[in-house]
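Q: I'm a student working through a structural biology exercise. My instructor gave each of us a protein and asked us to get a predicted structure, then write a short paragraph describing it. Mine is Hdr-like menaquinol oxidoreductase cytochrome c subunit. I'm not confident about reading structure output yet, so if you can add a plain explanation after the tokens, that would really help. Here is the sequence I was given:
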Amino acid sequence: MRLVLAFLAVIGFAGGAAADGTGPVVPAATGDPHPEGSDYWRIHHMDMLKHDRDLTMRDGVRDLSPDDLAINASIGECFDCHAVKDEAGDYVTFADDRHFCRVCHDYAAVTVDCFSCHRSTPSNESAVAYRTMAGPEDPSSIEAYLSRVAQEMNE
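A: Happy to help. First, here is the predicted structure for Hdr-like menaquinol oxidoreductase cytochrome c subunit. I'll explain a few features afterward.
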């Protein structure tokens, strides 16, 4: 039993541990601190992201502009302050173990699937990663698609 506990302790603190051995070395963020505080976000970031995912995907709140108060944790906004650059000054993607999200999630052995759909870097040098959603008048929008499907079903 002691051998198992020793093994788990070594694995738990291997790679990415802070100098004092208490956790991962998190890259410093740029910009203003979160009003709720960093500790709050460390604990509740997934709840916030899931809440805002539900607002967007299930309730149809699609305005991801900076003035939209309904969306507080858009994943695109994370990279305004939490994008990490490599030695050449380019943003590292989630494939790189220096990526902001990977540092803690790798340490905690948590699988992240956000980036199978979302960008893992800012969309440009100004670090704006907002997505423009297609409106109902756009033939590529989901509303236009559903309208076409409903029309075909009624024929």
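A: Here are two points you could use in your paragraph. Helices lie at 2-13, 38-57, 75-81, 100-107, 142-154. The two ends are 68 Å apart (CA to CA). It's a good idea to check both against the output above yourself.
Q: Great, thank you!
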